[in-house]
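$ ./design --mode recover --in tokens.txt
reading tokens...
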């Protein structure tokens, strides 16, 4: 029997610095913009562009939402958990 649900979304976790940034967001528009970006990343963790650099450890990626003016830096673990390293408003 086929699944009625779509593909499983990645779990989102935050680094300490990203969590601290989240604590400082009080503007509802910024919260909405970040939520939208996180949903896109959770559905397709490979959507962001790889950031060139060290090849040791997980590949750091950058997702930019031009509509909402949001940039998120993250990496994907072996178990497909997305760890947000930083939330940066562009």
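writing sequence...
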């Amino acid at each position: 029997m086929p699944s009625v649900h779509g593909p499983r979304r990645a779990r989102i976790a935050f680094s300490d610095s990203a969590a601290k940034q989240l604590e400082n967001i009080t503007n509802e528009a910024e919260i909405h913009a970040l939520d939208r970006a996180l949903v896109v990343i959770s559905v397709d963790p490979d959507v962001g562009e790889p950031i060139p650099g060290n090849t040791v450890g997980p590949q750091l990626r950058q997702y930019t939402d031009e509509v909402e003016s949001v940039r998120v830096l993250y990496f994907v673990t072996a178990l497909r958990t997305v760890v947000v390293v930083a939330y940066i408003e562009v």
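exit 0
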